[in-house]
Amino acid sequence: MYLPRHFDPSDRSIATDLVRAHPFASLISNDDEGLPFVSHVPLHLEQRGDALVLLGHCAKPNPHWRYLQQRPVAVVTFMGPQAYMTPRVYPDLVRVPTWNYLAVHCTVRATLVEDPQGKDHLLKKLIRDHDPAYEPQWLDLGQDYQHKMLAGIVAFELEVTSLQCKVKINQHRPEAHARMRAQYAAGGEGEQALGQWMDRLGIGASAAPDA
To answer: In angstroms, rounded to a whole number, what is the distance separating the alpha carbons of residues 146 and 161?
Structure first.
């Protein structure tokens, strides 16, 4: 993605925190005609030494797993908080609207997980991420039912081979920070989340709103 230097954080934990907080990803491969094929799936992030691996699955009728099998290199994107930003935050009038956001793009290499035990192990990690109270219910369904359900999915591991993280919160425009912070504090969920990221990254920490 287009990534100006001032929007490129040096701390990899920003990217991993974003992925864990916003795990619903877009998995993008090429189909058999060479066009992008996109599946929207939740992914579990796992750190193995210095390596990052994303774990997920798709329904067996979804052809995406075949594309991963044939062409293992793919792209995964995660969208964090995002919101419109009015040019009225600037002290001067010669400005235009923008959109602030945080995003992570990963280039990955896919490996399919086809054995039932491996799929069950992967599925339990996703359950623990999103609904740990459901795990006993899943176990109580019995092995026959579990195996039937596992046969209906194809699981995969996506090894991250390169990673980009974009933090676009107008950090290069300090003259707007005070009004941005005030607007985000009074805004909706996306705006408030961006304000929290401004706090975490110290963007405009010393700024005070105009009197």
So the answer is: 33
The tokens describing 140, both together, are 């109580």
The strand pair at 51-59 and 36-42 is best described as unpaired
Number of H helices, E strands in the chain: 7, 7
Over residues 140-168, the pLDDT tens digits come to: 998 899 999 999 999 999 999 999 999 99
Helix (H) or strand (E) holding 40: strand 36-42
pTM above 0.85, yes or no: yes
**Helix or strand (DSSP H, E) at 119:** helix 116-130
Residue 205 scores a pLDDT above 80: no
Residue 210 CB contacts under 8 Å (≥ 6 apart), including other chains: 91, 178, 179
N- to C-terminal Cα separation, the chain: 39
- Complete edge-to-edge strand list for the sheet that includes strand 98-113: 36-42, 24-30, 73-85, 98-113, 153-168, 51-59, 44-48
Domains, the chain, in order of start with CATH, read 5-176 (2.30.110.10)
